[in-house]
């Protein structure tokens, strides 16, 4: 079959970009058959053309002038990451009439609306399968497969680095620092790993998924975000003793009260060992959607790493190319529902409150009173005696205990208010954590 020629420009040739080059080289004949176009890689924009690179990267295609390159392309693949110059380059590409494929969740979750508007204005396409959960086709699933349904919630493990770190700490007893270093060496971690460990990478991904699923505009700043820096080996051990694992979960839910809205959160969560997300190990990702007609769906696979992410990039490149050859468009942004984002205090769930307390008569009753005052029902209490505080000056030293209190369903606002009140209770030595639970 005769094929037309399409010019493809690659911006960034790091972990993912270099794998994109490999797939473009190895599968060029197949891609031509699948999209009806020969995908000619016309240039690779890099920061330093003299830097060492994999032998497969054709040096004659390297350029430091990304701006000139995008103006010559039919399809621009942006794999630089970060906000600038990626944002300006994508605008230049769209304005020049190119379709854009990107893995840049940070940019889309911050400046998505203007990029979607520029895409529509230029009558081209914007694809970003790689931006959410790497190889897992979850953007496609939400944009297309579930377009005939009403999504009510999305929850997932969408950051490979933090899942890997928590898993290594749980199963191998590695320290946080050792596990992070290994994740960086394996190519999962972002250039600035704080965006992984502080939860912002997951926040960007849940913002993108929620925007599509709930037909609204959600940004990374709308997500109540807590990372994994404060998760301790003790918490991990206590969770496993009680039948849970700690996972960094990203959740987005449609709520009806006090008004139709969305709640969004990224937080270390106690996931019951029987829950399908508990079995997601290492750098793997999984996303669970609930929708009215389809019920629960689960998507699982490699959410990070060069080759898996390049697979998602190439799926978008093939789709973009086919549209340019045969006509039609990728689904456009459809924010018609305009649901507001509710304060996270409105979100409902069950929680575990962990406290260090003095072990004396009446202490439990006084703590229970804080829950009763807010109509929050306690489902379970576990008490472990702790060794006496050797640093305490007074003799005899007070006995101490660790209390772990699980609630029935309540709002996050209630549990935070209870936590604040308990912090003032003279019997409470420390409120160690307030952790959501996923049964
Ligand atoms: N590594 C992964 O597992 C995944 C990465 N992503 C996303 O894909 C994108 C790329 O990620 P990685 O390949 O891991 O990053 P990377 O840091 O390995 O590669 C980025 C490359 O862009 C180059 N670069 C920086 N500024 C540039 C400029 N002005 N012009 C040209 N090149 C420039 C850097 O020198 C670097 O080689 C990011 O948006 C990231 O969030 C998405 C899913 C998974
Ligand atoms: N740093 C990210 C890479 C993919 O998005 C992760 O660890 O998941
Ligand atoms: Na994906």
From TrEMBL:
EC number of the protein? 1.1.1.3
Q: Give the metabolic or biological pathway.
A: Amino-acid biosynthesis; L-threonine biosynthesis; L-threonine from L-aspartate: step 3/5; Amino-acid biosynthesis; L-methionine biosynthesis via de novo pathway; L-homoserine from L-aspartate: step 3/3
Where's the ACT domain?
352-436
Instruction: Check the record and name the NCBIfam families matching this protein.
Output: PRK06349.1 (NF004976)
High-level lineage: Bacteria, Bacillati, Actinomycetota, Actinomycetes, Actinomycetales
Q: Where does L-homoserine bind?
A: 190
Alphabetically, which GO biological process terms does the record hold?
methionine biosynthetic process; threonine biosynthetic process
Q: Could you tell me what this protein is called?
A: Homoserine dehydrogenase
Residues annotated for NADP(+) binding in this entry: 11-18
InterPro entries per the record? ACT-like_dom_sf, ACT_dom, Asp/hSer_DH_NAD-bd, HDH, HDH_cat, HDH_CS, NAD(P)-bd_dom_sf
What is this protein's function?
Catalyzes the conversion of L-aspartate-beta-semialdehyde (L-Asa) to L-homoserine (L-Hse), the third step in the biosynthesis of threonine and methionine from aspartate.
Keyword entries, A-Z: Amino-acid biosynthesis, Methionine biosynthesis, NADP, Oxidoreductase, Sodium, Threonine biosynthesis
Catalysed reactions, as listed in the record: L-homoserine + NAD(+) = L-aspartate 4-semialdehyde + NADH + H(+); L-homoserine + NADP(+) = L-aspartate 4-semialdehyde + NADPH + H(+)
Q: Name one GO molecular function term.
A: homoserine dehydrogenase activity
List the catalytic residues.
Answer: 205 (proton donor)
Quick one: which residues bind NADPH?
105
Which major enzyme category is it?
Answer: oxidoreductase
What family name appears in the similarity comment?
Answer: Belongs to the homoserine dehydrogenase family.
């Amino acid at each position: 079959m005769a094929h037309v020629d399409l010019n493809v420009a690659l911006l960034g040739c790091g972990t993912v970009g270099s794998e994109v080059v490999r797939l473009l080289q190895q599968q060029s004949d197949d891609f031509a058959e699948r999209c009806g176009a020969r995908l000619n890689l016309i240039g690779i924009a890099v920061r330093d053309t003299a830097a060492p690179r994999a032998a497969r990267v054709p040096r004659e295609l390297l350029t430091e002038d990304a701006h000139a390159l995008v103006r010559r392309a039919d399809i621009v693949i942006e794999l630089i990451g970060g906000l600038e110059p990626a944002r300006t380059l994508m605008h230049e590409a769209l304005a020049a009439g190119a379709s854009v494929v990107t893995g840049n969740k940070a940019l889309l979750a911050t400046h998505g609306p203007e990029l979607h508007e520029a895409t529509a204005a230029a009558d081209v396409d914007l694809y970003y399968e790689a931006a959410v959960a790497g190889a897992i086709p979850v953007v496609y699933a939400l944009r297309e497969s579930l377009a005939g349904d009403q999504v009510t919630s999305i929850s997932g493990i969408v950051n490979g680095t933090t899942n890997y770190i928590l898993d290594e700490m749980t199963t191998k007893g590695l320290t946080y620092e050792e596990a992070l270093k290994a994740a960086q060496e394996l190519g999962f971690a972002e250039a600035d790993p704080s965006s992984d460990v502080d939860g912002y990478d997951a926040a960007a991904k849940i913002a993108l998924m929620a925007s599509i699923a709930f037909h609204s505009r959600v940004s990374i700043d709308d997500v109540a975000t807590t990372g994994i820096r404060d998760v301790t080996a003790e918490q991990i051990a206590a969770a496993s003793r009680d039948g849970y694992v700690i996972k960094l979960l990203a959740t987005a839910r449609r709520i009806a009260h006090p008004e139709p809205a969305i709640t969004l959160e990224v937080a270390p969560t106690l996931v019951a060992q029987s829950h399908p997300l508990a079995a997601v190990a290492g750098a793997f990702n999984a996303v669970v959607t609930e929708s009215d007609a389809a019920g629960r769906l689960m998507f699982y696979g490699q959410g990070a790493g060069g080759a898996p992410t390049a697979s998602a990039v190439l799926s978008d490149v093939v789709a973009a190319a086919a549209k340019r050859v045969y006509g039609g468009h990728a689904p456009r942004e459809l924010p018609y529902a305009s649901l507001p984002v509710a304060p996270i205090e409105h979100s409902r769930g069950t929680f575990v409150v962990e406290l260090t307390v003095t072990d004396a008569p009446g202490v439990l009753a006084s703590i229970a009173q804080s829950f009763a005052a807010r109509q929050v029902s306690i489902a379970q209490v576990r008490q472990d005696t702790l060794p006496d505080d050797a640093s305490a000056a007074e003799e005899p030293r007070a006995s101490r205990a660790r209390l772990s209190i699980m609630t029935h369903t309540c709002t996050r606002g209630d549990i935070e208010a209870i936590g604040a009140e308990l912090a003032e209770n003279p019997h409470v030595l420390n409120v160690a954590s307030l952790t959501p639970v996923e049964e």
